[in-house]
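agent> fetching stored inputs for the zinc ion docking request
agent> found them:
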Amino acid sequence: MGQKRKKLCTVCKSKGIRKEGVIYMPEHRLSLCEEHFNEWFEKRVKEAIKEFKMFDKREKILVAVSGGKDSQVLWYVLNKLGYDTDAFFIHLGIGDYSDESMEKVLALGELIGKKPHIVRLEEEVGAGLPVLQNYVRGTACSVCGRIKRYHFNKVARELGYNVVATGHNLDDEASSLLANLINWNLKYLARKYPVLREEKGFPRKVKPLVKHTERVIKFYADLNGIPYTDRSCPLGDTANLHFYKEVMEEIENHALGTKYRFYFEYLKKVFPIFSALKEEWVEGELTTCKVCGEPSPSEVCFVCRLKERVKKDRTQSG
Ligand code: AMP
Ligand code: ZN
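agent> prediction call returned; pasting tokens
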């Protein structure tokens, strides 16, 4: 993808220096050498943080890391830019996939001299995801998403972080926007933004990598020796997700820059309209779970109910 067309670094050239670029990004018409690529990459992350008023240097940020390239790069780059970050990893109990992911998180922690917070579902809920998915309707991914969000909120609150950052990139955001528009999933669209303000016991949620594509993030990870795993979750049914990513890519190849425009013009021109209607679309009031104290639509939250059922089965079978 554009790799063959290595040209002279655009920035060096503007200073009268002839230096070959290490990457060519046709969507930006930019070829950059190692130094200028890193500079450019980090500058765009800073721009996203400022543009969407995500956080500042006085705030404590909890970075949700999965061991994959996006969130690993996010932790590395926020740390490099001088933000006050710690990482949080949920060990989902999915065999050696979870072990390998955790190793990558720990390796990055060593590299930057920080110790990540780790929660193990087996200890916290009583079983890993392969068992938990049998207790609920819906796909493994939807259960996993709910369990992860619950722990992001809980850990942030307990440890005093008011911001949670995730590694979602431009490809994730543009393709899920496309999928949700096609299905007129208005409830989702009303909340689709790189920042969700803190409310009702939830921390602020931010996505500082929204201006970068997967390809560019992977390139940054490899260039800077950031450890990450390439494996995808063995439980995940990602066919639908991949389908919309491929469709988006095809549109992008047809007209360079469309992916970026589609997402960012949406944020500017359409999101405010949907967001104004949010109250009508977002269901019900939240109360506080009487067991764990987290926000919940029911008296006892989803995770506490799950925990209770796992425990009951254990005592019956044991
Ligand atoms: P995904 O939904 O798997 O694409 O992940 C989206 C984002 O959620 C990642 O970029 C991470 O920031 C975060 N995340 C995913 N899995 C984990 C995990 N096991 N522990 C902590 N954060 C995670
Ligand atoms: Zn609860």
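agent> quick read of the result: Residues 53-232+240-276 form a domain with the Rossmann fold fold (CATH 3.40.50.620).
agent> awaiting further instructions
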